């Protein structure tokens, strides 16, 4: 998994009815874009994540979204 600052990390819900969780990557802590990542949720909460296999990186920046 490779990410850059400003990318979005999408963690897919694991059970029926559970929505995806989307956070913004604010800092890449691993070498060459690899995890762990410091991420920020919409409510402003920040944490460090090492995403699992149920996660994908959305490389579109927030400014690229329509």
From TrEMBL:
Domain DUF1918, chain residue ranges per copy: 1-57
Biased composition (Basic and acidic residues): 56-66
Residue ranges the record marks as coiled coil: none
Stored SUPFAM superfamilies: Cell growth inhibitor/plasmid maintenance toxic component (SSF50118)
Pfam families reported for this sequence: DUF1918
Region (Disordered): 44-66
Name the record gives this protein: DUF1918 domain-containing protein
Lineage, top ranks: Bacteria, Bacillati, Actinomycetota, Actinomycetes, Kitasatosporales
């Amino acid at each position: 998994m490779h990410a850059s600052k400003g990318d979005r990390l999408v963690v897919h819900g694991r059970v029926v009815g559970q929505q995806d969780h989307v956070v913004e990557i604010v800092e890449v802590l691993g070498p060459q874009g690899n995890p762990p990542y410091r991420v920020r949720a919409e409510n402003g909460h920040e944490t460090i994540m090492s995403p699992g296999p149920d996660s994908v990186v959305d490389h579109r920046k927030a400014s690229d979204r329509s």
